Amino acid sequence: MGSLSRQAFFQELGSGCLLPTVQQGLEQVWQLLLICLVCRLSWRLGLPNFLKHLSTVVGGFYTLYLFFELHMVWVVLLSLLCYLILFLCRHSSSRGPFLSITILIYLLLGELHMMDTTTWHKMRGSQMVVAMKAVSLAFDLDKGIVDKVPSPVEFMGYIYFVGTVIFGPWISFNSYMDAVESRKLSVSWFMKSVISCVKSQLCLLISNCVAPYLFPYFIPVFGNKLLRKWLQAYENSLSFHFSNYFVSFLGETTTTLAGAGFTEEKDNLKWDMTIAKPLYVEFPRSMVEVVTSWNLPMSRWLNTYVFRKALRYGSFTAIIMTYTASALLHGLSFHIGAVLLTLGFITYIEHVLRKRLSAILNACVLSKRCPSDCKHRHKKELWVYLINGTFSMLALLHLTYLGSDFRPQDGVASHTIQKWTQLSWTSHWLTFALWVFYRLIL
Amino acid sequence: MTEYRNFLLLFITSLSVIYPCTGISWLGLTINGSSVGWNQTHHCKLLDGLVPDQQQLCKRNLELMHSIVRAARLTKSACTSSFSDMRWNWSSIESAPHFTPDLAKGTREAAFVVSLAAAVVSHAIARACASGDLPSCSCAAMPSEQAAPDFRWGGCGDNLRYYGLQMGSAFSDAPMRNRRSGPQDFRLMQLHNNAVGRQVLMDSLEMKCKCHGVSGSCSVKTCWKGLQDISTISADLKSKYLSATKVIPRQIGTRRQLVPREMEVRPVGENELVYLVSSPDYCTQNAKQGSLGTTDRQCNKTASGSESCGLMCCGRGYNAYTEVLVERCQCKYHWCCYVSCKTCKRTVERYVSK
């Protein structure tokens, strides 16, 4: 009497997990998808812009209610607060920093005082998207990228854009205004929506039904006690990854369906919104690549509105501030904060080490892939591949370590510490060793 | 008062001898139950293990019997693996439907086996239902009680609640609703332990839920039935066995109830296994107590728990011998999809109690 036989397991998996997961995955989002589509179609009716903004506000409110019920008032409050600040500071040139601080205070108060953890946790994603939109708008106003404070209906349309209000991603105000112009319906637009939707459901299935049972049912690797700990950590990590991809592809679906997420070059329109690049995360070149591939719009946002503005204080400080900002956007979770801060150190040390190695060895071993016309002497030698391969394996190990304990609902600090202790603080020690090595070759 | 208790205990013992326990007699179905096709009603009378009520149930639900035979087999194997490190020799379960005193009386061991059997039979019926083997049941309707506002029902996973438990309960409780099965106290004990077993089964089949949302928030939650082994249930019941409560009968109002023997201020918990008769230490062979003794039982020299040689051998010491194991090693996975292994020999030292 041991575990289920392989055949019995797969039978059980089909009826007990695959079917319920698909059913629930679609059941919870079909209304959102429908509203996105209706909004898109109505924008094609030649309505005046005022009504277009209004229709997406209505759609956005309705979807917020669908997902969060009356708790949506907190999202509404946040957006009203943001507009108030923008309006009151309309003659100022420091709207960006001021609005950022205001939002930070609001989120901290919400986290600490306003309501129970479960409810706040549920809405955190939407709060984060609203915060990012408002901050980006404020900074763009400061720089003149957006030439005047938008009207209330424009602002609310942007904030509550039905394509991004629940699952993101962040899009810039100008992208939103482009979307309002309403491009023609086309086969490529429809295919993009459908394909992203299918991908999201696939990722949901992998997250729920494949990753947790990867070893030994799908891949017959058993291993001893130590290896089993790492295999289990990898399973947890993979499950978390694919949960993220599910949300990312779902965000692509809703955004495209609602009419945003395209690029235009000389009358050549492409529906090419990309939020996450799973292959770059699961088969990483470096942790830097992982970090940017995890959520491209968020990477862009952090780079534009945090990293570059903090660069005047030095690159290390800028990186740490970027990860701190990311952690704060994710809410006051010790676990997420610890993971992101650790990630910050890992990426920084890897980046500077590889940069140094690249200079010393005159080889293509940087964190990011070299363009084909780079001036390094060594590009395709075996030892170059070996070095890059080693860093890839390291990245895989870091990912397993950092993702080994993602149960977002319990933010207990001791649990994170306990999990990392079980894995002997491997990533921390390795990162420290690499830093020592880096100092030695300076 | 002590005399009254002694008299009552003697009375119960006498009755148990006169009317052998039949609460889990159906475990005897493993002997020849699998050779019967279970497609004619007269098959229900061919076997020793069923009491009249169970025979009636059998005739009305012939398609259930394959599941019940399988449950009997599973119960025995789960019992075997759970108690391999204990002094009590589980082999007496093989003598079903006729039991030796360690299971025929209201002992702690009987409490464990009874509750495990109740859990496993419900589990087996539920799984047969879910896999479509039972035409008499179908997917459960949406439950009226919602686990949470955002909980969404998903599929046939909950057949256990409505069909498995109901039919399992009807089957395993049937003998105890018959006065001839033994004194009322004994029957109350069995019914209670059956309920505990089913509750453990219910608890182990909780839905697993997972959150999905931007950066791990909980905008979407999906739930599915977790895959469960009988060994999980068995392990849970074993820990309840280790903390089981000895009870005595007591008249409370117009009803007879079982209350803890020691602290008489509290009622018996719904999740507690209960027993009436204390068990022997099972160290030496004693047919009257159903104790086979621990002589020649394997023990673990390096362990410190119940399987350790010190405890298993009851201080009598142990003998060592060597055994050559032939096992698979250097297994390799070939894409796609098979594993090939070499054969290795390994010598291990074994210890058995004197």
Mean pLDDT of chain A: 84
Q: Give the overall pLDDT of chain B as a whole number.
A: 72
- Return the string of H and E elements of chain B: HHHHHHHHEEHEEEEEEHEE
| Largest beta sheet: strand ordering of chain A | 1-2
Q: Roughly how many Å is the radius of gyration of chain B?
A: 23 Å
Principal-axes geometry of chain B comes out as globular
Summarize the helix and strand pattern of chain A as letters: HHHHHHHHHHHEEHHHHHHHH
Count of folded domains of chain B: 2
CA gyration radius of chain A, whole angstroms: 23 Å
Structural class of chain B: alpha+beta
Total helices of chain B: the number is 10
Keywords (chain A): Acyltransferase, Endoplasmic reticulum, Membrane, Transferase, Transmembrane, Transmembrane helix
GO molecular function (chain A): palmitoleoyltransferase activity
GO cellular component, one term (chain A): endoplasmic reticulum membrane
Membrane topology (chain A): Multi-pass membrane protein
What does this structure look like?
The complex is a heterodimer of chains A (442) and B (354). Chain A is mainly alpha-helical and 442 residues long. In chain A, strands 1-2 form a two-stranded antiparallel sheet. The longest helix of chain A is centred in the middle third of the chain and has 33 residues, at 225-257. Chain A has helices at residues 6-27, 30-43, 49-68, 73-88, 95-114, 117-143, 152-159, 173-180, 187-210, 214-218, 225-257, 278-282, 287-294, 296-310, 315-329, 334-361, 382-402, 413-422, 426-440; strands at residues 263-265, 268-270. Chain A is 71% helix and 1% strand. Chain A is globular. In chain A, strand 1 and strand 2 (268-270) form a beta hairpin. Chain A has 19 helices and two strands. Among the domains of chain A are: 47-181, no CATH class; 277-441, no CATH class. Chain B is α+β, with helices and mostly antiparallel strands and 354 residues long. Chain B folds into two domains: 25-144 and 153-205 and 229-282, no CATH class; 294-353, Wnt (Wingless and Int-1), C-terminal domain (Endo-n-acetylneuraminidase fold, 2-Layer Sandwich). Chain B has ten helices and ten strands. Chain B has helices spanning 2-18, 29-32, 52-60, 65-82, 101-104, 108-130, 159-173, 184-204, 230-242, 309-312; strands at residues 207-212, 220-225, 245-252, 255-260, 274-275, 285-286, 291-292, 298-299, 318-334, 338-353. In chain B, the strands form four sheets. Chain B has a three-stranded mixed β-sheet. In chain B, strands 8-10-9 form a three-stranded antiparallel β-sheet, with no helix packed on it. In chain B, strands 1-2 form a two-stranded antiparallel ribbon. In chain B, helix 4 (65-82) packs across helix 6 and helix 6 runs antiparallel to helix 9 (230-242). The radius of gyration of chain B is 23 Å and the shape is globular. The two termini of chain B are 42 Å apart.
